[in-house]
Structure formats: C-alpha cells, structure tokens
Design goal:
By secondary structure, the protein is an all-beta fold. The protein has one domain. It has no helices and 5 strands. The strands form 2 sheets. Strands 2-1-5 form a 3-stranded antiparallel beta sheet, with no helix packed on it. The chain has a two-stranded antiparallel ribbon with strand order 3-4. Strand 3 and strand 4 form a beta hairpin. The radius of gyration is 11 Å and the shape is globular. The N and C termini lie close together (9 Å). Bound molecules: zinc ion (ZN). Zinc ion binds next to loops.
Length: 55
Amino acid sequence: MARRTRFECPNCGNIFELSALSMVVRPHALSKGNYVRCPQCAISNWIQGEPVASG
Ligand SMILES: [Zn+2]
C-alpha cells in the first residue's frame, strides 16, 4: 500500500520514484513540490511530483 510519487529531474531529465515515507513534508513546500535528490546526478531540486498508481 505504499504510495509513490514520480519525479522528473530538471537537471538531467532522469525520472525516478520515491515512496511518500522517504519524502520530508514541509509546510511551505506545497506550492513548490517536494525537495528531493535525484539518484542519478545527486542534485537536489524542488520538483512537483505526480502520484503513481500502483497495482
Ligand atoms: Zn538528475
């Protein structure tokens, strides 16, 4: 039942998914998206993710 969110890295274009548990929710971050680090280029960005339907 893990909810996952898909992100596209604006730096390298890599598409990756993170589970909600691995993301830190910040009150002022909602309009920007989530501050996540790309596993490919290791650059952190504010990315508006989109939920992934699982199952
Ligand atoms: Zn990247």
